[in-house]
Amino acid sequence: MLVLVITILCSLIFGHIKSEDQCNGLYSNYFQHLSTKTPYRFVANHNTEPINFEGCKAWKIWLVQRHGTRTPGKELDQFVKNRLPEIQKDIVNNLIECKLCNEDEIKSWTSHKELDNQKRLTEEGEDELLSIAERMQLRFPNLLNQPFENTNFLFRFTDTQRTKVSAKQFATGLFGRNEVKKVVFEEPLAKDPLLRFYKVCQKWRKEVKKSSTASIEYQNFIESQLTNNTLKSLSSRLGLDYTLTFNDAKNMYTYCAFETAWEKNKVSPWCSIFNKSDLMLLEYSEDLKYYLIDGYAYELSYKQACVLLKNAIEYFENNFENAWSIRSV
Which Pfam families does the record cross-reference, listed alphabetically (predicted)? Predict the structure, then answer.
């Protein structure tokens, strides 16, 4: 589910420069370019009006719900604990040459308390799922005015902490903290063939996910002159006497997104180091990577998802199924 010495007066927002043309000022719409790590609160649909179509009555809901904001995985965890402090030190040592508005925040930065290398659901993630469920309850009142029965609701989640807690938070938002105690959740499968079909499709794992051919366009982009120029420009603005690698920049960008999700009332110092062009390039690189591996670049990638669509169709065709079918992945 983020931000950046000269002797001028700076106009601050949450302790950061608002103007883009002073002291490497924060690009004010940075949160619009965080790709798949964009905190839900920036893009959420807050409409709570009941959904009505003339001549129709809501009868069933089949929902695939993504888990909420989580902590990073091993790669970013190691980067933040080992490499990022080195970059921080290099920036601080060159602050005479480098003009940053949030000098003190760069100096005092330490890794976040929720960094744990476990991809666990964060407090922000719990709030996200609770709020989504509360809004859906208001949008489909006729389905939720009935007394709660486990025969009316099916909850299924994958075998991870982040999806288990997400499902329970969603159920809490639907029924309240007292009623949720009655909810029976299905036991997760180690490799769920419905919710994690990609885990059991060895052909996809071999021919797409782990294929060098599938990622060659992505590799060409990150090695392009455009990307190289961006890395040089970024490194120069930070006063570094070397050029950051693409992985350095990408990981700082990703951590900027995580800190944005975790901290609602302040901007991460690692967001302000990027200007709009930097963010757009990094955002595109993420979108390209996911398009090639998980999107429509390869027929196999989307065809394997047919098992989930088949489940939805069968659910609506079965007159005796649950009123709600909620799946957290």
Answer: His_Phos_2
pLDDT value for 19: 43
Q: What element of type H or E holds 310?
A: helix 306-317
The Cα–Cα gap between 37 and 52 comes to 32
The H-or-E segment that residue 314 falls in is helix 306-317
* Amino acid occupying residue 247: N
Alpha helix (H) residue ranges in 180-305: 197-200, 202-204, 216-222, 225-237, 246-262, 276-294, 299-303
Q: How confident is the model at residue 34 (pLDDT cuts 50, 70, 90)?
A: very high
Which tokens hold the place of 127?
């709030």
Q: At 89, is the pLDDT very low, low, confident or very high (cuts 50, 70, 90)? A: very high
10 Å CB burial of residue 48 (0-12, 13-18, 19+) is exposed
For tokens 């290398």, name the residue: 117
**Tokens 């180690």, residue?**
190
For residue range 143-185, what is the model confidence (pLDDT) as tens digits? 876 667 777 888 899 999 999 999 999 999 988 888 888 888 8
Cα(23)–Cα(99) distance, integer angstroms: 5
DSSP H or E segment with residue 163 = helix 161-179
327/59 Cα distance (integer angstroms): 18
DSSP letters, 77-139, are HHIIIIIHHHHHHHHHHTTTTS--TTHHHHHH----TT--SS-PBPHHHHHHHHHHHHHHHHH
Distance CA 322, CA 89 (A): 57
Beta bridge partner(s), residue 63: 326
18 pLDDT more than 70: no
